[in-house]
């Protein structure tokens, strides 16, 4: 079936609508970062950069490091942007741009998020690295897709019972990382965690400036939640969307978090740039080894 112009939108140069990329512009290994300014902080390690493109908050560099072709792409903040990025990345490799038809042979991407995050337990050190084994999404993104088969409803139900989750909020969904890709990125200094993906930075993460929050003990409830050996470890804003859509589309995804804040102790990293730099170096070393 041919996809209509209103569903599969291309620019005048035949590039995909938001990312402004052509199929040949991306590698099969894609690193995502939130901040567009972090893209060159990753690509500066490449031996050669062949592509530099940008549109809105979506900036892309593609190049090679130790003979491996890698794309680094900024997503901006939030799972609404992840919906754009994951669907358009998939389109770049799995839709024929000339016929507007889905390819018979599909390509699997390795998608690795390098991001920053805040821990909610005192025993998770500032400047440590955490790989998200699971993520729980408080947004509604995955509920717009036929996604029950990639969710973990037993964990979701236990979480809602524990927190007294309000009916007028979106139903949380739990998704997991790709274990095979995760094993390639793992080392002794990486913690495994259960990441909460929030729909905002302030109220949804329990921060109060001038507005009162609906549940003043939300972070306490998150920290107290247990399901077998699982406990929620950290807060950020993209991982659940990446994991959910990657699984639905047949890609492999892992989220690597640099812990810059500890909400339990009130601490913040004294040198966040240096810590994030070390996580970038670790990730590049592992994927090119």
Question: How does this model look, in words?
Answer:
Helices cover 26% and strands 28% of the residues. With 289 residues, it is α/β, with parallel strands linked by helices. The protein has one domain: Rossmann fold (3-Layer(aba) Sandwich). It has a five-stranded mixed barrel, surrounded by four helices. A hairpin with a 4-residue loop joins strand 12 and strand 13. Helix 2 packs parallel to helix 6. The longest helix has 17 residues. The model has no long low-confidence stretch (mean pLDDT 96). It catalyses: uridine + phosphate = alpha-D-ribose 1-phosphate + uracil. Its EC number is 2.4.2.3.
Brief summary of the model shown:
InterPro entries: Nucleoside_phosphorylase_d, Nucleoside_phosphorylase_sf. The chain is built from seven helices and 13 strands.
Mean pLDDT: 96
Q: Give the tally of structural domains.
A: 1
The CATH class turns out to be Alpha Beta
- Helix percentage range: 25-40%
As a percent range, the share of strand residues is: 25-35%
SSE order in H/E notation?
Answer: EHEEEHEEEEHEHEHEHEEH
What's the β-strand tally? 13
Strand neighbour order, sheet with most strands: 7-11-10-8-12
CATH topology: Rossmann fold
Rg computed from alpha carbons, rounded to a whole number of angstroms: 19 Å
- Tell me the overall shape: globular
- Largest pleated sheet: 5 strands, mixed, barrel
Going by CATH, the homologous superfamily would be: Nucleoside phosphorylase domain
